[in-house]
Protein 1
Amino acid sequence: MPVNAYLIDELRKILGERVSVSPSELYCYSSDASQIRGLPDYVLRPLNTEEVSRIVRLAYENEIPVTVRGAGTGLAGGAVPVKGGFVLDMSGMDRIVELDIDDIQVVVEPGVIQDKLNEVLKPLGFFFPPNPGSSAMCTIGGMIAYNASGMRCVKYGTTRHYVRDLEVVLADGRVIHTGSKMLKSAAGYDLTQLLIGSEGTLGIITQASLKIVPLPKTRKLVMAAFESAEFAGKAVVKTFSSGVVPSACEILDRTSLKVLKRYDPKLVLPSEGDVILFEVDGTENSAQEAAAQVMEVCSGLALSLKLAESEAEMAQIWAARRLVGAAISRLDPTKSRIYVGEDVGVPMKQIPKLLEKVQLISEEFDLPAMKYGHIGDGNLHVALFIDVLKEEEWTRLKAAADKIHRTAIELGGTVSSEHGVGAARGQYMELQWGPAFEVMRVIKKALDPKGILNPGKLGL
Ligand SMILES: Cc1cc2nc3c(=O)[nH]c(=O)nc-3n(C[C@H](O)[C@H](O)[C@H](O)COP(=O)(O)OP(=O)(O)OC[C@H]3O[C@@H](n4cnc5c(N)ncnc54)[C@H](O)[C@@H]3O)c2cc1C
């Protein structure tokens, strides 16, 4: 789109100098953490709801695509303006508007960083549980739009379970509230839940009321290694069916373990096997009891079993788990990890099957694959590697990722458990949802008749 003097003039009336069409700046907004690319025509930096509303009204009148961006840490291209137009950088709307501890909730603007919110809540004895691995960077707006989660969701749920009300700018610039500060309401459609996970395709979130919860008093960590990933998967299923709900349940398969050991041989991890980290929390007594139960369930299946002896040892083990992303490069320096097929999920009892099938796919396409992630909620992160300079390896990679996505759907699961659909997985929406996808199209048409909000996403 050539720069339009009328639009520039109108945008400057709303935002002053917070409008850019400089090519270098446009380039900075042309990607997120995925492989998807798309250049915007205008970068806009609103600071309040009124400005967002006026920008969107202008876009509506002139039929210009609007893509919202939080921190750009998304792994599905959601914040990438694949159809050009306006990019709204929400990072300037980063105020914690209200700490309402009496009602056990907070009101925040969408640009607030997840970790910053928890830093403020910690001294008050509370926390906001959804914790993506990117929590040091990602925004609450991006988390709501993707229904992000992370390690703790196995016990505490996803972002969806913490949102009570959203202030939203609709496609024509109108501003609505979707809920209230109430714990419950039986009056009408639940627009809050509709907006969560809608990836900026139905409205722009300008404020959110979030439930918070008390910090647990104690955490305990059990580390178990198994002779195969299937055995590890079985131990997870048995643990949950025994009645324990861990506060985190993470898998590091043997390849992940190997690269972590290569990265730092001194890491406090088992020497062999496929590893599961079970964390439990609660009071000293309840956490102790739950940890003992996990040890008992795993004892017949595991090669090795260890209860972390101190807070410090537990912190070291979690630090090792967090290194997995960085350590991946040690697998083979000639290959790069590509984020495709990386976020599938299946119902709990299908976990062993998924692990087995992913291994077979990796062998069939002759691609190394690391498997790690939030196995306790059925979510497996598959890391596939290729030499990016070899076109033939890209072809095999795409075919393997396609098979992984289809396998997850066949097992009754999802192509994305937490990273979202964006511009990366839209082709599977029909297959996963069947006729329900048509209902999604109708909703999109009703709320965004001109199709200006984040076009090219969600397979819509
Ligand atoms: C190292 C790493 C680890 C990660 N670990 C996890 C993990 O454990 N769990 C997990 O769930 N994700 C994870 N992610 C993915 C990502 O960080 C999360 O999805 C995060 O919530 C995205 O937030 P963001 O602010 O970066 O959003 P962006 O990437 O900027 O945007 C994400 C989507 O939200 C939309 N959006 C943003 N703000 C708004 C708004 N105000 N109104 C409407 N729509 C909006 C965008 O248009 C886009 O569709 C990880 C990413 C990285 C790089």
Protein 2
Amino acid sequence: MTLSVAVSGASGYAGGEILRLLAAHPDIEVRTVTAHSSAGQPLLAHQPHLRSLAHLDLQATTPEVLAGHDVVFLALPHGQSAQYTDALADTPLVIDAGADHRLTSPEDWAAFYGGDHPEPWAYGVPELTVGGVKQREHLRGATRIAAPGCNASTVALSLAPGVAAGVIDAGDIVSVLAVGPSGAGKAAKTNLLASEILGTANPYAVGGTHRHIPEIRQALAAAGAPADGIRISFTPVLVPMSRGILATSTAPIRGDVTDAEIRAAWEAAYADETFVELLPAGVFPRTADVLGANVASLGLAIDRAANRVIVVAAVDNLVKGTAGAAVQSMNIALGLAEATALPLNGVAP
Ligand SMILES: NC(=O)c1ccc[n+]([C@@H]2O[C@H](COP(=O)([O-])OP(=O)(O)OC[C@H]3O[C@@H](n4cnc5c(N)ncnc54)[C@H](OP(=O)(O)O)[C@@H]3O)[C@@H](O)[C@H]2O)c1
């Protein structure tokens, strides 16, 4: 049976990547694409690489246009999704790429976003360790899914195995990330002009203000860290690569564990995972090797002099960081083969 799908925000980066993946999905027909200022124009005017969807025109994003599909993807600026969710009550599966339905804590929502706190939905990172099982168990049969923040899921996947195994201390995490500007979306912004970002690295949201911080805390609490004992210093740095995140996260080693026991925590967590890989000891990932792939690639080091575990993670923010996570979660929710339409291989050089 072919499932009908509507994708909102289809002129943007996240919507475009969801469409690229869905176009190769054997069980899906993309029937409707919607946008805001671009409504009325052909999809290909904004996504010329999506040739197989050339027959689609962008419609206005309204509850009426989105209703009547088996699956609806919302890929809208944060704060825009919640207004559609009541109107989509009869839609069997709704997946939000925005932040609206990610946070369970009203206090975190108030502190980092503000306004009404929308209902939290199932978190779309299947490989996360949550209460002794994988998050995919909570996605089976889900009808409402919040796809993750790209930086948040990258850091959470980096550290959750060590937290769950009790070998790292979540009370002193430091994460520094190199991120590409596609993470900020397609809308024109002066600070994202080529003249502002080429040839330079620009830190931003320094000092604990980035909106992905509570999402990381939430994921690590779900992995088993004491909720009031998670401290994370999180610093993103904008670098001149279109896509990609390279996150270097470190945390103190807990207790009297051997190097082998530490590494075993990550090996056990990801040995059976298709889309999260732990590289051999001494090998670290490059963003170039995950471009276009639905893969989080991790390298692990143990620095005994600093008494810290270091995890370096590379993710394509638009694939494993957003659209791939959304489609993977959709597959699980619908009982389809989890890897359907998800690229394991990247694009290189
Ligand atoms: N980019 C990433 O790497 C990434 C990663 C994880 C999550 N996300 C999340 O995904 C969502 C979309 O991000 P993006 O990067 O794709 O942004 P984007 O490239 O700026 O695209 C935004 C899309 O939303 C539409 N839109 C703008 N204002 C709207 C409104 N008031 N009502 C309805 N539609 C509106 C735009 O339509 P027009 O172009 O026609 O105006 C466009 O299609 C955000 O919530 C973001 O946080 C993005």
Protein 3
Amino acid sequence: MRAAVVRKSGGPEAVEVLEVPIPEPGPFEVRIKVAAAALNPADAAVWAGVFKPSAEVEYTGLGLDAAGTVDAVGLGVSLEIGTRVIAFDSAVLRPTKAQAEYLVTDLNSIALAPESMDLTLAATIPLNAMTASLALDHLPLRPRDTVLVTGAAGAVGSYAIELARIRGVRIVAQGRPEDEQFLRDRGATWFVSRDADLSAAVRRFVPAGVDGVLDAAALGAPALAAVRDGGIFVSVRADVVPAAQRGVMVRLTTAGPEGTRLAYLSALAEVGVLTPRVAQILPLAQAAEAHAQLAKGGQRGRIVVVP
Ligand SMILES: NC(=O)c1ccc[n+]([C@@H]2O[C@H](COP(=O)([O-])OP(=O)(O)OC[C@H]3O[C@@H](n4cnc5c(N)ncnc54)[C@H](OP(=O)(O)O)[C@@H]3O)[C@@H](O)[C@H]2O)c1
């Protein structure tokens, strides 16, 4: 099969499409015929060499998000061949991953795809919706409480807005001025521009500071400054965890496989509560170009490759 891999780290041009063996599913694993695989910042960490494979590894696969159909099953799996699924393949540094013709992953990493949804769109759900959902679980918010979401127009941020909305909390969304209407439509109560002083802008709406922040833009201290004394700051990046102060609790989110949560998020997308977005679709053969686009940033929605 063809798979996007990295043999030697560098820029996005380090991404190659190679002919590699088709992986076989082991016990409690499924093989998915990939219809679409989304690109994420975590992929850039692989080609840039931030995540380093051991020296003897010949190549490392790319892609944590896939949508496709079950193609083969391992011992203990009763799913029918052809079942439409989404997958959050969270293990990094494996020889082949989601950006390939086939993906093998375990049962806890998949869920039924939203029934009526195009698989290209569905491929943009797993990693980012899981991260937003897990991050919000760090914020024990009650209806009418206030939460700031930085980078709210991004993939994690926009799912966070939609998931916070169903908890009945009041949301301050930070983004570019051109994102304001999009964010209000998703459920933001207030909008602050990324050009403004964040804490001052937030405190114009919530004078004491918000109860919690989900820092999807990885801003660190400036986002923590917008939280009330004794509130909660949630980071999505291990390298952006500001020191706790004023009794603000600082927490880190790390998304991992959780089939039940993924199934719940898929169901929310099916009924239109979550809005997946595709920025661009490219053939797998152009994976290096897709990753170069990812590196430029500024996309609204995910870039997706199709085998
Ligand atoms: N912990 C985990 O398991 C996990 C999982 C997934 C993602 N992540 C991390 O979560 C973060 C968000 O991921 P994503 O996929 O949502 O990325 P994304 O789609 O690129 O969104 C990031 C958002 O942050 C905004 N932003 C960037 N720099 C900013 C700044 N200085 N001030 C204000 N806004 C800024 C971007 O705005 P523009 O586009 O307008 O520049 C964009 O809207 C990334 O750091 C990613 O690595 C962590």
Protein 4
Amino acid sequence: MTATDSKRTARCGCGALTATVSGDPVTVYVCACLCCQRKSGSAFTYAAVFPSAAVTIAGERKAWRHIGDSGRWIESMFCPTCGISVGFQSEGMPGMTGVSVGCFADPGFVPPARLYWASRRHTWIALPEGVDVQDTQDG
Ligand SMILES: [Zn+2]
Ligand SMILES: [Zn+2]
């Protein structure tokens, strides 16, 4: 993907909650920590991080906060109707908003630069060359 000023919109399952982002993400990662496995109902989360000023959230939402395997809080926002998490903020990323990449429904989205908590990933997960693999999470 090339740098762009265009906007992209991530949506929950029912479409009521959206996160519209402008510009490219600061970073894109996947995280296989056990919290992320539960939160996503899958093997990992896949998140794109933007400056909060570049993210516009619209629609009714609820939030829940929990302590991640990193020991820091993470607050996820989700649609009260379908329950899908569209984005989050966290203690470890002040001023930033993470958006669930799957909610963009764009198979051409920026691939992850990093895998956090590789030590907890499902054993079948192999990663392409060039992904920075971290056994835990440093930041
Ligand atoms: Zn929804
Ligand atoms: Zn995680």
